[in-house]
Amino acid sequence: MRPRSMAHKLEGTVLEILRITQSIGCTVDDMHPHDLVDRIKDGELEIPAE
To answer: Which InterPro entries match (predicted)?
Structure first.
């Protein structure tokens, strides 16, 4: 998915995927994707550079 993403960083790609999972009603590790997006944006969950 990373090569097809328009995001400049891996974090952006992860956020794209989480938004897709949210829109189709999936969960990730029994968590709502929006909660994970909030944790990433707040700095609680760190995404590696690559």
So the answer is: Ribosomal_uL11_C_sf
Write down the residue that tokens 């956020």 correspond to.
15
> DSSP secondary-structure letter at 47?
-
Stated pTM of the model: 0.80
> What tokens appear for 14 in the block?
């992860």
Which pLDDT band holds residue 2 (cuts at 50, 70, 90)?
low
Q: Model confidence over 16-27: pLDDT tens digits? A: 999 999 999 999
In order of 11, 17, 20, 27, 39, the CA distances from 4 in angstroms are 14, 12, 14, 23, 24
What Å distances lie between residue 29 and 5, 8, 44, CA to CA? 23, 26, 16
